[in-house]
Amino acid sequence: MLVATFIRYFKVYRGINFIPVTFSDRFSAYIGENGVGKSSVLEALDCYFNGGDWNINIESKEKGYKERDPYISPLFMMEKSKVKPGNKAVKENIIQLSEILWQVDESDFNQSQIKIARQFIYLRDKLKKSYNPEYYVLIMAGKDYQNTPQISIFGTIEKIKSLYDDEIEFTKSIEQINTYIEKVYSYIYIPAEVNASSYTKLENKSIQELMGQSIDEAISAVISNDQIRDINIGLNAYVESVGNKLNGYKYKKPARRQKNLTREEINSKVIEAFFSIRVLNKISGSNEIPVYQLSSGEKRKALLDVAYSFLCSEEKKKKEIILAIDEPEASLHTSACFD
Fold it and tell me: Fewest 10 Å CB contacts: which of 16, 188, 290, 294?
């Protein structure tokens, strides 16, 4: 699970900030006044997981990035037995780092990092009460605004630096951990201003992640490679038969190589002709109302209902899903917020 993240010079956050996500629960909420940085946390994680835009803090932009490099470094916890990166060296690196993270104390950090270190140690020690470090690993990952691997305040700890021969090996190791995290987790972010109509379309990547199956996979299950081959054979035969009726003319592609329909092209056309014209409808008694005709509050509720339904489905997901919703109660009547 995602337990915390370190954020530096991203949006409203100046300097290094430690943002807890959870100690043990599957649900967390950030509550506070406008402008304190609630949305910034969700956007930062979207930036890390999905390559979103780096909304860099104004001070960092004005004074230069030296000593102010913006970065996002999430902290995860996982059962040791489930850590399977497919590379023995990567797993050993994760376990070695984890052992240090479970044991570090204030004396291991620079004086300028003590305040942030104390916040991390407080959260870590709370985790220890519920999770035995013998069976769980803490996984530190992250990257800066130039996509360079970054693990925040832990990058200066001598015990961690001694694990690597040089900076190049360190960078490569953290990069491999980032790659592994991307394979394990899927971060789905629903902004406050999201368009409900486009977001709920089946071809939307986030919806497919929630379903646990891509449209490409669904199409491939219906239209086999053998069928695509037969389609190409039949169409080529038809074009050839047309040419046989012409005297001194033929139909062919401008390129030398006659190109057949590929799996990607078939899938693309099916999505365009079949899926893209289908919109989410709300069933209300005997009526079916397109989501774009709903009120702003009903649209918001539809987003939450769809996400909840897919998350609760019994279909096995390929990845662990982290669903982040900015202002889930936006436009909802007070009586609907609690539900």
Answer: 290
